[in-house]
Write a structure and sequence with these properties.
Largest sheet: 12 strands, mixed
CATH class: Alpha Beta
Number of helices: 9
Helix content: 10-25%
Radius of gyration: 19 Å
Order of helices and strands: HHEEEEEEEEEHEHEHEEHEHHH
CATH topology: Carbonic Anhydrase II
CATH superfamily: Alpha carbonic anhydrase
Distance between the termini: 30 Å
């Protein structure tokens, strides 16, 4: 199915109007975004270059994720519908009203509800992520965007410093694993092959996909960097508590090529959709060290079980 292409900011903010289309090169590129939205030239912008030695160690409360689906038949996967959209700037995954995902804990004072997730990538495997770690990018970055429940809409949330939380996941292409494919991302990249033009979308009937994207089995969900920042596209609202997970996930080169085959709103290949890092200024970046690790009573195995699987085993997972 093909829908009229819309600016990524419009889709992201569900009705918050922008005066002009943005892009990633030329007159509408990142260096000129402040002409589209003045906030894009602000002092608390994202993404950033995280220099690990300059981060401050902290032990926040556990970060918790809760999944809840509403369906008449627990075996009916058709009721768990997700919509994957080529919005002309990225591949974006949205859930329907019968699925609720919430995030709380860590430095967050409130509960945040999932709105959508999307991806950023580059022309080759040595670029693509918006966040840099020690000056180095990864090949792909996934952003999970969540809204503070005390605000009724995205348009309202972006006007508040605590309005949004974004979870950032970094991916790279491993060397030497020629036949490897990320099985979770395969469900995304297979669909992308049928929605290359801007405005196209595909319905995915998969109850487990969103959960597996947010909580992949190899991710340490409690070890992350966090700071106060902004949306990385216009209007660049400075309303985001950022989480960038320390675990680097993997995907295949062939899967990355499926992202690059998408077409932008102007019909050109979507091969470069990341914003360069912005000045950190006087902001602090915190590295969360789970309390078990901080006490010295935790080995690698128990850390994995306690931190990665805890959200699944008792910190809020519920499939109803």
């Amino acid at each position: 199915m093909k829908l009229p292409a819309a600016p990524f900011g419009l889709l992201l903010l569900a009705g918050l109007c922008l005066g002009a289309e943005f892009g990633y090169s030329g007159e509408n590129g990142p260096e000129n975004w402040s002409k589209i939205s003045e906030t894009c030239g602000g002092k608390n912008q994202s993404p950033i270059n995280i220099i690990v030695k300059d981060t401050k160690s902290s032990s926040f409360p556990p970060l918790e994720v809760s999944f809840r689906t509403y369906k008449k038949n627990p075996f009916d996967k058709d009721s768990c519908q997700l919509t994957l959209v080529n919005n002309g700037h990225s591949a974006q995954l949205q859930s329907t009203d019968n699925m609720e995902v919430t995030v709380k804990g860590g430095p967050l004072k409130d509960t945040y509800t999932f709105q959508q997730l999307h991806f950023h990538w580059g022309r080759n495997n040595s670029e693509g992520s918006e966040t840099l770690i020690n000056n180095k990018p990864c090949s792909l970055e996934m952003h999970v965007v969540c809204r503070n429940e005390k605000y009724k809409s995205m348009a309202e949330a972006v006007n508040h410093a605590d309005g949004l939380a974004v979870l950032g996941y970094m991916y790279h292409v491993p060397k030497g694993l020629f036949f490897y494919k990320n099985p979770i991302l395969t469900r995304i990249t297979s669909a992308l092959q049928h929605m290359k033009d801007a405005g196209m979308n595909k319905t995915l009937c998969d109850c487990d996909l969103l959960q597996n994207l947010i909580l992949p089995p190899t991710l340490n969900f409690q070890t992350y960097y966090t700071y106060n920042g902004s949306l990385t596209t216009p209007p660049c609202s400075e309303s985001v508590t950022w989480f960038v997970f320390e675990t680097i996930l993997e995907l295949a080169n062939s899967q990355l090529k499926d992202f690059r085959k998408l077409k932008s709103s102007d019909g050109t290949p979507m091969t470069h959709n990341f914003r360069p890092p912005q000045p950190l200024g006087d902001r602090e970046v915190y590295r969360n060290i789970p309390q078990e690790q901080n006490s010295g009573q935790c080995n690698t195995k128990s850390s994995y079980m306690g931190n990665t699987l805890a959200p699944l085993l008792g910190l809020g997972l519920s499939l109803v």
